[in-house]
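[09:14] KT: can someone run the structure on this one? pasting the chain below
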Amino acid sequence: GDLFGANLLWSSDYNTISLSTMIGASDSGFYCNDGVSSNTVTQSYMRGGLYGAYLNPNFNYNIISLSTIATDNDAVLAINGDYYGFRACVFAGTNLVKLVPGTSASL
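[09:31] RB: done, C-alpha cells below
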C-alpha cells in the first residue's frame, strides 16, 4: 500500500497474518492502532518508508515470529507505550533489518 502495508484498526483483536508481504511506501509495513490485542504475525515480511512495524499504545498480548521487519530509515521497530502501557508481546525468531540504499531484505 501507499501509506501502510497492513493496518489493524482499533479493537482488531484475534487476527492471524501469515506468509504475507506488507509494504507501506510512505509509513509502515505493519501498523497497529491503539487497543489492538491478541494478534499473531508469523513468517511474514514487513517493510515501511518510516518504520518496518509501528505498534501503538495498548498493543498487548501479540506475537510477531519468524518474520523480517525492515526499513530504509533508522527506526526498524517503533513501540509507542509511553502513556498507556505495552505488555506481553513476543518477538521470536524475528530479524530486524535496516536496509542500505540499493539493497533488499527477504525471508
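[09:33] KT: thanks! DSSP finds no helices and twelve strands in the chain.
[09:34] RB: yep, looked fine to me
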